[in-house]
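Lab notebook, bench 4. We co-purified these components, and the gel suggests they stay together. Before we commit to crystallization screens, I want a quick structural picture of the whole thing.
Request: model the full complex, all chains together.
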Amino acid sequence: MITEAARSTDMALTVRSVSKAFTARPVLRDVSVALRRGQAACLYGINGAGKSTLLRIAAGLLRPDAGSVWIEGNDVREHPDTAKRCLGVISHASMVYSELTVLENLRFAGELYRVSDRAARIEQLLTETGLGPFRYDRAGILSRGLLQRLAIARALLHEPTVLLADEPFTGLDVQASEHLIGIFDTFARRGGTILMTTHDTRLGLRCCERVVVLDQGAALLDKTKDEIDPERFAEDYLSYARSQN
Amino acid sequence: MKSAWSGFKAIVVKDLVIELRARQVLPTMIVLGMLIVFILRLVSEPSSGRVEMPMMAAAALWIAFLFSGLLAQERSFGVEQQNGCIDGLWSAPLDAGTVYLAKLLANVVILSIFEMVIVPAVLLSFSLRVTARWLDLVIVLALGNLGISSVGTLFSAVVQLTRTRGALLSIVVLVVLMPMLIPASFALLVLFGAMPEEVAGSGAMAFVGSFRVAQGYLLAFDAVFVVACWLLFGVVVEE
Amino acid sequence: MRRWFMALSIVMLILSTWLGLTKGQIVPIQRNILYVHVPNSIGALLGFAALLLASVGYLVTERQIYDWIAAASAEVGTVLASILNATGMIFSRAEWNVWWTPSPRLISSALLWFLYVVYLILRTSLPGSRRRRARICAVFGIIAFLDVPMVYISARFIPDIHRPDFSFESSWQTLALVLGIAGTIALAGVLIWLRADLLRRRFELENQLHN
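Here is the predicted assembly.
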């Protein structure tokens, strides 16, 4: 669902001078990031640089102390419902209930987002993620890889146009990571916008055409893949991260 | 309005399905409740009849409700903590007030199931009869249930979302609920036949004890705190 | 300014005590505790009003000064409520020979004290973001305020024990009580002011440390 206001701009996700502090020490200082529709960007930074906080603010889970977030032309604070409907959120936590079956978890998400033609949409996602055979299994007994697929199915159920992924590769083996990259690729090819964080420099570079490095709550570097040499960047970033400890 | 209904229903059904399937808390609640009733029955025994049974029964009922209720409320947002489900809930297009009302209803239902077991247990172990006034008893218990759950649901969110220890929940909830317990136990004593329907008092703060007034008080208490907690819930959960 | 207020309130309290023990003495002597008890009960109640105003102020404006005022009000309120209960108990012992008995007044005073103490415990036990803690405390402040009338109505379900009638025989007695009330409120106000200011300074120091 895209509103009129959103069509007037080609920015899918705009973070405008966002600051946030939990204690006296600020976590984010005046960070701005804007993603064009269809762009995929990866946030890097050591632990505590503010990646997750930025993503949580973008998802409307945290309120910034200053600044604003716009999703498809909707201010997250002013029109949370419209903005949240355009958002899919994935993290290293699966956000599904262990006691409910795969199908029940998806139905629950479908009702929260009021997805029309729910049954058909759920079937479609079960096929796409290969979860069909597990539909009556409780989420609690799924393997880590299958659980992540369920988390993705849950996040994509309401056909969001912007995907926020916080450390989505954590705990996934090579095969599961490949599957996840495949899903990101498909999502991007359909015109979806992605903002993700990861510690794995190479995986991030594979999925995204833009890299943003956060350092102590401020953007240190913001470049597209064309502007940098991916190999050099990976090496430089690694030595930078080591120097921070 | 219609849009909130879908989310409301989904959360209530989800919470009850999880509870009935995993039986995370109801068995513990019931056993704790029965232990409280049993202990109060035991400690009143050595008085060989000098302690009045209806009084102990009223005490047993409300103490059991309060403490078992706390277990139910703690679970209410505890279940959202695992796997980060709470983030899934807040990232959905849902109004915080709707989440509160859904959680409240789920807690009221779970506490009602508990009451169905514990009330007969109290009536039996303290040899009380309320057959003629069972409807009044149900109303008093339901009003008490709603009051206990309203405050408990709000602060259970606080305690779970800030990852504070559960002891905080009990003191916060108990202190707010304390005033409710006086009319609540008055009403039970009337129903158990230990007090006349209406007691005229004297003194500057004239005694206003009557069953109807007690019921009215419970209703007002519930109304005030359900509305206040519903309005304030969004403020509490926002990070 | 603050110093003058402080001095004024203390002068009023001393004057009230002096009057109460001399020209305005009530017979029998133990009933003179009223000159401390009543002002503190009014102060403890007004503390909830201050807590409510500060809490609502914080939620509406998000300015931290309101959070500090709320914290200070609760701290001062706790002190007033403690004195209220202590004097009530002393009076009860002298008048009825029991330290505590469930009468509407004593129950209400005890519940007020519990509400304040739980507010303070809540303040110190919440981890995480400062703003979130302030918001949660503000919510409890509002809930606690709503609880106060509930406490007073509900306590009336308990029979009132026979209460000594105080009828003031001389205007000296009225004056002593009025001075006591005014002095207590003024002192409470100054203490809230001081305490909130202290909390502000601590916050500023913490900020300087991190920047």
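Chain C is about 80% helix and 0% strand. Worth comparing against the SEC data before the next meeting. Chain C touches chain A through ten residues (CB under 8 Å).
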